Structure formats: C-alpha cells, structure tokens
Amino acid sequence: MILSDNNNNLVLMKNISKSFFGNKVNTNVDFTLEKGEIHALLGENGAGKTTLMNMLTGVYFPDEGDIYFKGDKLNFNFPGEALKIGIGMVHQRFSLVGNLTVLENLILGHPDNKYVINIPEKKKLIKTYMDQFNFQVDLDAIVGELPIGVRQKVEILKMLVREVDVLIVDEPTTVLTKQEADNLMEILKSIAKTGKGIIFITHKMSEVFNIADKITVLRKGLKIATVDKNDTNPRKLAKMMVGKESEITFERPKVETKPSVIKIQNLFVNSDKGVLAVNNLSFDLAGGEIIGIAGVSGNGQVELADALTGNRDVIRGKIFFKGDDISNDSPVKRIDKGVSYVPGDRIRVGVAGNQSVWENIIMKVYRLPKFKKGVLLDNKKLKEYAEKIIEKYNIFLPSINLPALLLSGGNLQKLIIGREMERDCDLYVFVYPTRGLDVGATEFVRNAILQLRNQGKAVILISGDFDEIFGLSDRIAVMYEGNFTGIFNNGDHSLEEIGLMMSGCTEEEAVKEMSSGSEDKKGKEVTDV
Amino acid sequence: MFKIKLEQKERVSKREELIITLSAIGIAFVLSGIFIALNGVNPFVALWKVITSALGTPYGISETLVKAIPLIFTGLAVAIALNSKLWNIGAEGQLFFGATLATAFIIYGPVLPKPLELTVLIILGAIGGALWAAIPALLKIKFKMNEVISTLLLNYVAINITDYFLFGPWKGKDNFPYTPEFPVEAKFDRIGFGRVHTGLFIALVLVVLLYILIYHTKTGYKLRLTGSSLKAAKYAGINIKKMMFMVFLMSGALAGLAGVSLVSGVEYKLHQQISTGYGYTGIIVAWLARTNPFIIVIFAIFLSILLKGADSLQIAMRLPAAVGVVMQALILFAILGSELFKNYNIKLIRGK
Lengths: 529, 352
Prior knowledge:
The complex is a heterodimer. Chain A is an alpha/beta fold. Helices cover about 35% and strands about 25% of the residues of chain A. Chain A has 18 helices and 22 strands. In chain A, a hairpin with a 2-residue loop joins β1 (about 10-20) and β2. In chain A, α8 (about 235-240) crosses α17 and α17 crosses α18. Chain A starts with 8 loop residues before the first strand and ends in a 13-residue tail after the last helix. By secondary structure, chain B is mostly helical. Chain B has a domain at about 70-305. Helix content of chain B is about 70%, strand content about 5%. The mean pLDDT of chain B is about 90. The interface between A and B is medium-sized, with 34 and 26 residues.
C-alpha cells in the first residue's frame, strides 16, 4: 500500500483535485514521498505535474483533497510558508538575483538574518554544505556571470541552506548539457542519502531510470500509477505516459498531392533560453498531406512551428514555401503568402485575450482594402465578417464584444481555426490543437484538420495526443531533442515503438527493443488505490 | 485570529471596477484628511475650501480649467502609450523640451502672422516632445532598456536643458531666468473666461481625434493588440518595434503640446516653473481614466480641482505647499493598491 501511514512519510497528498477556468488540471491525485527517496514525477507537459507541486508549495490551493507534511495537515496562506517549514522547489525559471554574488543570493531572505549578518560564519556554514554533498561553487562570483549549470547548483544550495526536508526540482536538466545533468543527478542522489526527500519532475525516460527510486506517472491530470523503478521498464512507462491506442478512426480519402508545399533544410532554431531547440532538421511536405509530429513537449516542436510561421528567428538553414525561400520573411509576409498558424498557446498567442471576440477574428484580415473606409477601418463590415465566421463555425457566445479570454477553450479554438480556415492558406501549422478541449470541440477541430487536407492543403500537426496523430496523419515524425528520431508512414510503427522513439531511441532501436522484450514477467505495477 | 487568503480572480466586471476605483479615491481622501488634520486644520473645512475655491466662483472655475488643459494633453500622452502597455513617465521632460523648442522659434525665428505663427509653434512643440520621447523609444527597441527608468531620468535632462537656455542665452534683461514676454502673435487667444485660452479647444479636438485613432483605425487596432499581448500582436503580423516607436513619438508629441499650451497659452514666456508636475499628474489622469480619451477629460478636471484647491489651502489655511502633492500621491497609491482587489479575491478566514 502506498497510502499507509508510516513514519517515513514526508509528504502525503490525498485525493487532490484542481481546476483552472473550468478545466480540470488534477483529478483525485494521490502522492506520497518518503524520507531519503527520490521520486520521479513523469508525464507530458500539461499532465499536471507542476500544478500538483505548486499545491504542495502553497502557490495554489487544491479545490479538493488534503496535503500532509510530516503528519501535519498543511494550510498555507501564502507561498513563502512552504519554504519556512521545509518544502523547497527549484523552478524551471530560476529565482536568483543576477547582480548579486552567490553568497548574497544564498543568504537573501534567510529567516536567520538579523540586523547584522556575520558573513564569514555564513560562508563557513555554506562550505560545510558544499563539502557534504561534494560540489563547489565560488561564493563570491556574480550569479549573472555564471553558466546555467552552476546557477542551478546555487538554487539547490539555496534550498540546502534553508534546510528543506523536501526538495522539488522541476525539469532541472532541460537547460543543462549532458555532463552538467549527470553531475546534478549525482548531487541529488547524495542529498537524498541524508534522508531528505526529492521530487524530480521530468519527462525524460533516461533520467528516470538513472535517478528515481519510485516513479509516479501522470497523464491528463490523472495519476496513472506509482511504481518502483525495479518493477518497471522504459516500455511500460512510455505506455503509461502516452495511454492506449484508440479505436477511433477517421476517413482519410486519397487525395491528389501537390509536391513540396513546404520544404525545410538543415534548420536550426533557438529556444527562448538561447539553447538550440531545433537541431539540423530537414523534411518536406506535400499539399494534401498531414504530417503528425509526435514527441514529449519541450523537444523543439513549438520552436519549429514558430520558426515556420515567422514568430521565431531561424539561426541557420532554409525554409522553402512553394519554392520561395521564406526563411527570413516577417510574420506578416508569410501571412500574406498563405502560411497559417494555430498556436498551442491559444490564450496568449492565438488571441489577444483582453480584446473583444470580433477584434480577434479580424486579426489577419483587417489590413485588406475591402475593410477600409477612407482612412478609417470599416468597423461595421469587420463586425459582419466576424459574425459570419461565428455562425459558420458554430462559436457559442453571448456577444461579439466579449473579451476573448472569457471564451471556453473549445469556443476559443473554434474562433482561431475559423479565422484561419476562412483565409484559405496553403500551409497550416497546428500546435496541440485539441489540448484541454472537450469531446465535441475536439471532434470539430479534427474534422477541420482533415477537411483542410482533403482540400489539398499541407498540414503540420504537432500533437501530444496519439488518437490524433494516428487518426489524422499521413506520415508521422517523432521529435526528440530538436530532431526527428523517426519519420515514417502512419501504420509503420506501433504506439510502443513511438513511445520509445519519444524517449530518444532511433527507429531501429525501438523496433529491436520491442521484439526483444515482448513478454515481460517483471514485478507488478502498483496502481492507484 | 483571522488570516487573509488571496486567490486570483478570473475577471472583474465594469461595475466592480468602478466601485473599486471610487473607493480607492475615497480612501485617498480619508488619508489626506488625516494628513491635513495632523497639520492642525479641520479636514472637512479644508475639503469645503478645496471645492469652493475650485468651483465656487467663476474665477475659480476658470483657473481650474486653465490647469485642466495641460493635464488633458499629458493625460492623453500617457494614455496612448499605456494602450500599448508602455509607461511614459517622461511626459514632464517632453513637455519642457517641446516648450523649449517652440520658444526657440519665438526667440530666433521671424514673427509670422498669428495663425501661421501659432501653427508653427504647435508643430514645433509636438516635434520637440516627440524627439525627446524618441530617445527612450530607441533605447527600448535597440537595447531593451526599461522605458520607465529612461523616460523618468530624461525628465531631469530636459529640464536642465531648459535651464541652460534660461540661465544662458535667453536670460531676461533683469538677469532673472525667464525669457522676454512673447509677442502677441505667439499668444493663444483667451476665450473670454478668465485665463482660459483656445488651447482648450485643441485639447478637446485631440480627445476626439485620439478616440477615433484608437478605436477606428488600423493603427489604433494594432496599438491595442500590441498592448493586449505582444505575442499575439507578433503572431498577427504586427511589427511590434515599429509600433512601439510610433506610440512613443505620438505620446511625446502630445506631451510637447502641453508645453506649448503652457508657454503660449498661460505664461507667455518660458521659465522654470511653467509646469508644476503636469507630466506626472498626467500619469494619474491616464490611469484613472483607464486610457479612455473622453474619461481623461473628466479626470483631468478632477485633478485640476485638487491642484487649484491645494493652492488655496496653502494661501488661506497656511497648509504646506506639499499638501497638493501628498493628495495626488495618496490617490495614486490607493489606485495602485486597489489593483489587488481587481486581480484577487480576498477572503478572511478564521485561523487557529
């Protein structure tokens, strides 16, 4: 039993549910952490890992369920309290002051600080921590001048100085080199040996097996299972992470394809953090074809979509659209040439949330001469245009003057897709088009995507949903760390094989792994209680 | 014992927003009252004095309007930038630079027929303000420098440039730091109500024009989209940098006009005290009005009542000159503090 009351328990989260804007992000999740344990929290982005941890650290309050820390029920009033009682989190975005030295960052806001801070004593204290866990950071260095891997160590050191009992690290290796990542994991292991509990949020399979004692898999806000590392294998975990193959099938009639609508050659693109997100990627795509790009979030999919549509600079490489080199074209040029983008971040990128629905629908057409009235915009005509789209795409709303951010996820996505379909482009890029949508809206979106394909448009479908990838794609590509680990016709590989490719295996390795470990008699999975 | 819990709100209704804003102003008044009481004056008497001195006589009303004119300009200036989520804290400096450039023409240029002369002054004032605003705009676009800091600091530079001319080449005959009185061609006509001048009409026309610009043109649409979400604006194909630059120029130009309206409409000369912080008060006006040009007029008048009233308090009740500034500051604090109530639900819970 996982949920037994046991003296080794550091953290016990019972039956936790949380919704944002009506979307369930966590549903009845249980979670335990014991002393000295490294517990990996595995799942896709959007699976609810970070939200769950934000409730443990008091950033959010659960709608339902209780959280216990060392046997006491937690009732936070503000986020800082978690750190006071010994729960610390190292976020993906570091919370260090770049202009201060390492030492200053470490003692900043420490509750022991009185009027005078005894610097030499603090230094000595911090040195003992570094010695204990066998890593060194120059305490007098300016944090802003340190490489990212060292900054991460400072973050961890900060938590050690605060003497946390529970250390949560949120996808700590995304910004690190391989060596830095290995080093980090050694440090975490030695920290766990002292009896502290570590929660390691990740979506990388290799790390899970390197570091974790226990693994909890979340998918779509639900806890799928908690398993012992020794009782499982990458294949099983991949399966838990991605779910079951679905029965749903879509009609995909044969359509005549138009050659090479979009062609990408040796593309390199940086992420916001300035590290390579798309790494030497090449492929081409015909009109009337859907390429489904599968992969765990954060492997460069969004950056690829941004680069294709002009929302992100190309570092190197070329993008050809209908034979034209558009690598350096601005977004507006690409919009005019017929590139359409349905971004994954609907509320911040897909629409300007505070602006009204109608103003969001006209976002890409307001420049057209037919909407001009002298020097003014013909607001009446624009509103009529918006109303036409609202009716045609069945967007349900009380008024076209409503701010777009008040629309439900499904209606918002209908708005965006309606806006884009109406423009009649040659290339459509969809990023997580059905994430968080209900069944009806999901069906609408998928049918729309198919309809575009059947009309001879080229469609790039970036998705984390395998029903979608298998149901819609003509070809499937699996993206891992900025490149494709496989690109093949839909049907050539099983879901498990794709799951392995998502964790970094090549096509051949995935096939080999599957044929070797076809029957497994290893220990039982510990599932939900 | 009670504990306070904060949780993010999904949205605030227009009505709630109005109530929160008005309550904030109310709280600011109560706090101002305490400050006034500590200075040994009955706050109710003081409030009555403020109201009667600003609105009780035709003279009071006209002086209130005189103060409202530059506030409309600076309010519009800050508001148009705020529409794109840019903070122009530099309206004061742009005001001075615009006024100085216009004055330069009066001093060095030919005296033109009145309509032409005034047109040139208005254009130069706008250009001066825009030029001064172009500096922080470029710093932001090229070097990502925070505009709050750059616009604020450039205020002092602009004021010092004005001082240079006032203490240097433009020094008056009696050696005081002000220019000679402008020729009649460079003065705005009075409209026959105290010192209220035709600059009022220019301000009101601009209110309408800006309303049209913001809500009925392509530029306005782009501007609002940029303010609503930079990412969405970029996604929609808007050249964000160009947009920011343009917004800064417009904002600076409006502030520059405030400068012209002061030197040519009220003071008839350039000196160090042409503005008593209109550029800063404009920030409060724009923020209170939620950037709506028509509502800016209302709050410009509201704040000029306070300015006028504070003048009278100083004279009639021997309160320190700082009273007006303190009241403004309290209003700004209360308004900014009230943002919390717009974004969060606040619950009192009984703790252990």
